[in-house]
Amino acid sequence: MSIEFCGLELAHRVINGSGTFDAIAARRVFDEGLRTGFPFAAYVSKTITLEPRAGNPPPRLWEAPGGLINSIGLPNKGLDGYLRDDLPQLADLLGDAGGEAADRRAVPLITNVMGADSEEISRLLEACQERGEIAAVELNVSCPNVKTGLDIGADPRQLEDVVRAVRGRTQKPLVVKLTPNTADVAACAQAAEEAGADAVSLINTLRATALAPQATVRPRRPWLGGGTGGLSGPAIRVVALAQVEAVAARVTIPVVGMGGVQCARHARDLLDVGATLVAVGTESFRDPASAGRIARELQSLEEG
Ligand SMILES: Cc1cc2nc3c(=O)[nH]c(=O)nc-3n(C[C@H](O)[C@H](O)[C@H](O)COP(=O)(O)O)c2cc1C
Fold this sequence. Notes:
Blueprint: E1 3-5, E2 8-10, E3 14-16, H1 23-30, H2 32-36, E4 43-44, E5 61-64, E6 67-70, H3 78-94, E7 109-113, H4 118-129, E8 136-140, H5 156-166, E9 174-177, H6 185-194, E10 199-202, E11 206-208, E12 229-232, H7 237-250, E13 255-258, H8 264-272, E14 277-280, H9 283-286, H10 290-303
Parallel strand pairs: 3-14, 4-7, 7-8, 8-9, 9-10, 10-13, 13-14
Antiparallel strand pairs: 1-2, 5-6, 6-12, 11-12
Helix pairs in contact: 4-5, 5-6, 6-7, 8-10
Bound molecules: flavin mononucleotide.
């Protein structure tokens, strides 16, 4: 069985949520096992920005009931560092390097990028266009824990303008990763589709915060170094289901559904409301092999 997604051929319906599975670090731990038993049908990189970013000051994590607030702040090596250091390693791992990996199906690489405006995003897309190792691009317009240029995804008109302005900069499939922190996510999805997106993905994390626990400290301060962060994990699953359902009902392009998926039943729910693919995020921190298990269980649900 194979799944068609924006012209790519995938072995199954389960991919990773950007920023939640570091394939390069995982390879150091699992070595060849990761190559042969790669859990995702496509691999989405963490968000890459034009310039390197250090990320937010610590603390960066807060455990919430049934979830996790992260305020990581998108640390990354920047475009040049990604292309120079990470891309060759990812291509080797995912099987795009030819030769050695010819015995198994290559896992398409989706590079996730974020820019503060159309100019920055255009440069990122143009650079991705040049690289054959990259199968598709995911545009992050939705991360709530950094302060620049991110609200473009919250307003349908702005989102449409930006996607329209950058769409022509790559011929590769363009997935727009929507923000859930908006009044009408379906309107944003429709705007992205009308501007030329090939697919949309959702949900990103929900804006959240936590106060430092010392009850006696006045005024109370946020716990997270970045002030606010984004909530992920089981706590957001029901929100994800509602937003994916609303979006899938509005657009004709494929939808990648994510948010709190821990087992095949959760994945099946997202598919049943109209998603084409499902991404596993926070669950991979608890169990890095979870996506492989979910994909297998999903296949047996489909066959049974
Ligand atoms: C620690 C962490 C880092 C993340 N980094 C990114 C990122 O770099 N880019 C992005 O688009 N989404 C990022 N996300 C959002 C996830 O890809 C996903 O949309 C979200 O966590 C919901 O799925 P989940 O509940 O299964 O984790 C991150 C999430 C977490 C928890």
